[in-house]
TrEMBL record:
Residues 81-297 form the Alpha/beta hydrolase fold-3 domain. This is Alpha/beta hydrolase fold-3 domain-containing protein. It holds the Pfam family Abhydrolase_3. The lineage of its organism: Eukaryota, Viridiplantae, Streptophyta, Embryophyta, Tracheophyta. It comes from the Eukaryota.
């Protein structure tokens, strides 16, 4: 009877992430145990510590430092990775076992200093709180405000990385860094979008094809962004559905876009990758994990596929020269807004065009 009553009192059913009841209370379902930090390196040779970036908002981060990497070359500073976890903007934490484990692996494999950002979640803190926290953390990391960062991190080799919602955050931080006055002093070497969460009102083939039985269904995803923004934005919000001209004008140095073949949002990632390539302002790379679904790399049982993906990320971060780009994107699977694309020539896109595009979207 109690269970039936609870079901009747549900206001927003956002399973598998959470359930919000009519009295405003929230029950989060996708949880992972808290892992305490330790400045004593564990089996992976990685030490961790937590920092509060902004006491007024509570935005904080967990820092990861590979002791083994320090032994490789004591005089050479390490790459810096600012990592944003996934979880649909309403779930997850940098301090949870799920994302701690991935950030720790990222640190151990790349040798980079990793800053895993713990941002505020919706619906308690609707979008744009997550973006504001992500930006505050990025500014903090770039300023090398922490002793670990000032002593060991190379600000000229800073990467942004994230999966799902975190991949979406990476895109929006890259746009802001290219256009905001307080982003001009940043040096972002590359961005890594792992199965990024993009969406829109126009269906893509991967969102219609149910043969692969994806983790999520499009009808449910349609309700997510309005929920996350407290009803202030729809699914064609440019933060969720970036216009092609905005992506094509993005002046990032390097980008690695990865998708999973069974993922509902697979074609959104393919589309984003294609637009970056057309813009010719970014050395773009694309990688598809065959037979896998959304955020599979966080699953400890997906060792083979997750290992291949991690190898690609490690290669991308560690590389000192640009390799030839290979593409594995099927054009027939991508639906682009042709009218908007016809109005812009990728050969003549500048940072000024990017700023103008952003102003037009505000």
């Amino acid at each position: 009877m109690a269970a039936m009553k609870l079901e009747a009192e549900i206001d927003n059913d956002m399973r598998p992430f959470l359930v919000q009841y009519m009295d405003g209370s929230i029950m989060r379902l996708a949880t992972s145990p808290f892992v305490p930090p330790s400045e004593v390196p564990g089996k992976t040779g990685v030490a961790t510590r937590d920092v509060v970036i902004d006491p007024s908002t509570g935005v904080s981060a967990r820092l990861f430092l590979s002791v083994d990497a320090l032994r490789w070359d004591k005089k050479k500073k390490l790459p810096l990775i600012v990592y944003y976890h996934g979880g649909g903007f309403c779930s997850g934490s940098a301090f949870s076992k799920l994302f701690h484990r991935y950030a720790e692996s990222l640190c151990a494999r790349t040798g980079a200093v990793v800053v895993s950002v713990d941002y505020r979640l919706a619906p308690e803190y609707p979008i744009p709180a997550a973006y504001d926290d992500a930006w505050a953390a990025l500014r903090w990391a770039a300023s090398l405000s922490d002793p670990w960062l000032s002593e060991y991190a190379d600000p000229e080799r800073m990467f942004l990385a994230g999966e799902s919602a975190g991949g979406n955050i990476v895109h929006n931080m890259a746009v802001r860094a290219a256009t905001a006055p307080d982003g001009q002093d940043m040096s972002i070497e590359g961005i890594v979008l792992l199965q990024p969460f993009f969406w829109g009102s126009e269906r893509q083939p991967s969102e219609v094809d149910r043969d692969d039985r994806p983790l999520f269904v499009p009808e449910w995803v349609d309700t997510l962004w309005p929920f996350l923004t407290a009803g202030t934005a729809g699914n064609d919000d440019p933060r969720l559905n970036p216009p092609p001209e905005l992506v094509m004008a993005l002046p990032c140095r390097r980008a690695l876009i990865t998708v999973a073949s069974k993922d509902l949002v697979r074609d959104r990632g393919c589309q984003y990758s294609t637009w970056l390539r057309l813009g010719k302002h970014c050395h773009e790379e694309f990688f598809e994990s065959k037979g896998e679904d959304h955020a599979f790399h966080l699953n400890p049982w997906a060792k083979a596929s997750a290992g291949k993906l991690m190898d690609r990320v490690v290669d991308f971060v560690s590389r000192t020269k640009l390799y030839p780009i290979t593409y594995d994107v099927k054009p027939r699977r991508i639906i682009a807004p042709k009218i908007r694309l016809q109005r812009i020539s990728p050969n003549f896109i500048t940072s000024r065009d990017l700023s103008m595009s952003m102003r037009a979207l505000v």
